[in-house]
């Protein structure tokens, strides 16, 4: 029979108390997502969380949807820069919103610390049955013959697909008619129903329509062809000097630095470049990146500059 002395019991209790205090000192890493569960940002965040657990232990993915991701962003903005609170989000709130909103309640550069660009994705120029076109050359010829009559749909004014359309108009020197819808599904229905000629959409969201023949992706917006539709040329290959993509990234609050930043940065570079993670992202239609903090900061700066002119050209200003 094991008999505990008073001294042994006291030491055991002190050890347990010490371990408990240490656990409280290191809460789980929290990854905020500014969109509902099941969406693309949420899926990316949960893939990242699963991969980071070996290095970080318990991780909480916390969905705080609303205001296009701004609710979650402001929570990160207010968090301590200790490496325990980060956000995974698409590029829009960091490179579009500063130009779109009259009064944005955060500074996309000063209020956050870039950690890592996770993956990049591009958009497709999708021709519907009403367009009657099979190539970018045919699209441009039609647009130049009757300026403003060819229409393209998007999930709404001020969205990235909207500005993709504007950037293409500027790059190609044509005039198209923008038709905003309340989301991607209504725009898709309008395209298939013949009510609009084109739409701009994420390639992964429209590849099935392309392969089934219900619609045709006539070009992609990035610098290289998309593996989901390798037969489709880039806009540059089609003669339009345009290269535009979007991305998912991880950010922390301003002031995140030193060991806290280095630990996150190193882990993100490692996990995104692992074959298993790369395979998951590619299957979802994304190009794995796994950048360091400095490269993400440079990508954000480049896209902030890239989108300023097309956004101002639309005159879109949101409250």
Gross morphology is: globular
Cα Rg: 23 Å
CATH class of the largest domain: Alpha Beta
Proportion in β-strands: 15-25%
Number of separate helices: 12
Would you summarize the structure shown here?
The protein is of the alpha/beta class.
Task: Please write out the topology.
Layout (H helix, E strand, L loop, with lengths): L5 H20 L3 E5 L6 H17 L2 E5 L6 H9 L6 E6 L1 H4 L1 H4 L11 E16 L8 H10 L5 E4 L5 H13 L4 E4 L3 H9 L5 E5 H10 L3 E5 L24 E9 L4 H15 L2 H9 L3 E2 L4 H22 L5
Parallel strand pairs: 1-2, 1-3, 5-6, 5-7
Antiparallel strand pairs: 3-9, 4-7, 4-8, 4-9, 4-10
Helix pairs in contact: 2-10, 7-12
Name its key features.
319 residues; alpha/beta; D-Maltodextrin-Binding Protein, domain 2; 10 strands; 45% helix; BUG; signal; Tripartite tricarboxylate transporter substrate-binding protein; Bug_dom1
Describe the 3D structure.
- This protein is α/β, with parallel strands linked by helices and about 325 residues long.
- It folds into two domains: about 30-120 and about 245-315, Bordetella uptake gene, domain 1 (D-Maltodextrin-Binding Protein, domain 2), CATH 3.40.190; about 120-220, 3-Layer(aba) Sandwich (D-Maltodextrin-Binding Protein, domain 2).
- It is built from twelve helices and ten strands.
- Strands 1, 2, 3, 4, 5, 6, 7, 8, 9 and 10 form a ten-stranded mixed beta sheet that branches.
- Helix 7 (about 160-170) crosses helix 12.
- The longest helix is centred in the C-terminal third of the chain and has 22 residues, at about 295-315.
- It is globular.
- It starts with 5 loop residues before the first helix and ends in a 5-residue tail after the last helix.
- Pfam families: TctC.
